[in-house]
Specification:
Layout lengths: L2 H19 L5 H6 L5 E8 L3 E2 L3 H11 L4 E4 L6 E2 L4 E8 H29 L8 E3 L9 H10 L13 E3 L1 H7 L2 H11 L6 E5 L2 H10 L3 E5 L3 H11 L4 E5 L17 E3 L2 H4 L6 E8 L1
Parallel strand pairs: 6-11, 7-8, 8-9, 9-10, 10-11
Antiparallel strand pairs: 1-5, 1-12, 2-4, 3-5
Helix pairs in contact: 1-3, 3-4, 4-5, 6-7, 7-8, 8-9
């Protein structure tokens, strides 16, 4: 993440996380460390994977004390192995102890998403299909989780509800049908925005094409239905498939020819990557 993004969009979220963990004081640290003492600790990788969130890890400690120094041996996107020394942190021992859990929570979560995303994106290699995330993110973690998807080789779908038009099943129900929903979106949205609509069958697809939708999301269709849908679209709109897409079943859509595949599992089902802060000692 660049410095402007960090200061404008990330610092407040990190401070909220720190306040969640330190509501008044770190009573354990304050009990055993009555005064400042310089110390050093090692950031150790405990699983193979893709690392993401090193800058966020560092920023946690900087927000507690700008004198903390972190020496990185890897960068976001690097593949790491169990036992690798990822970084060394030097600073007030009290700051290292108080910030440890929050910093590791971010790094483990983000690295887990990057690792899982990389494993899924590799299954699409050789095809034209791009792997997208969704808005199925942890509240107040979206900027971190979507960044981790990019680090892992995926692409970001819209960031939030203000970022693009995506007409889903309940929107269609509220509008009274596919054609009416697309028409109203085109009337309301600025001309520079594309109109995407979710369809569940070929009849809805035909209606969406006739209404002039720019992107058709094929939701919960079988591989055979998706193949028919892509042939029917014939390049008149971009296509995206969605609906319970995971690492275990994504291979079924590789040869179908959709432009995009979106997977909520990238952010809601990725396990953490185990990393640990070890060997804290005075220097």
């Amino acid at each position: 993440m660049n410095p402007i993004t960090t200061k404008l969009n990330v610092d407040d979220l990190i401070l909220m996380a720190l306040k969640e963990d330190i509501s008044s004081e770190d009573v354990t640290t304050n009990a055993i460390m009555r005064e400042a003492k310089l110390g050093k600790a090692d950031l150790i990788c405990k699983q193979d994977g893709v690392i993401a969130g090193l800058g966020v890890f560092q920023r946690v400690f900087e927000l507690l004390d700008d004198k903390v120094a972190v020496k990185m041996y890897y960068k976001d996107g690097d593949e790491v192995k169990k036992g690798d020394l990822l970084a060394e942190i030097t600073g007030d021992i009290r700051v290292i102890l108080s910030g440890e859990r929050t910093a590791l929570n971010y790094l483990q979560r983000m690295s887990g998403i990057a690792t899982y995303t990389k494993s899924v994106s590799r299954l699409l290699e050789g095809s034209k299909t791009k792997l997208l995330d969704t808005r199925k993110t942890t509240p107040n973690m979206r900027i971190f989780e979507k960044y981790a998807v990019k680090v892992g080789g995926g692409y970001n779908h819209r960031y939030n509800l203000s970022d693009g038009v995506l007409i889903k099943d309940n929107h269609i129900g509220a509008a009274g049908g596919v054609a009416n929903a697309v028409r109203m979106a085109k009337e309301y949205a600025p001309f520079v925005r594309k109109i995407e609509i979710e369809v569940e069958n070929l009849d809805m697809l035909k209606e969406a094409l006739e209404a002039g939708a720019d992107i058709i999301m094929l939701d919960n269709m079988s591989p055979d239905e998706m193949k028919q849908a892509v042939e029917l679209v014939a390049g008149r709109a971009e296509t995206e498939c969605s609906g319970n897409i995971t690492k275990e079943n994504i291979a079924k859509i590789v040869d179908i020819g959709v432009d995009y595949v979106s997977s909520g599992a990238l952010t809601h089902s990725a396990p953490i990557l185990d990393v640990s802060l070890k060997n804290l000692h005075a220097v």
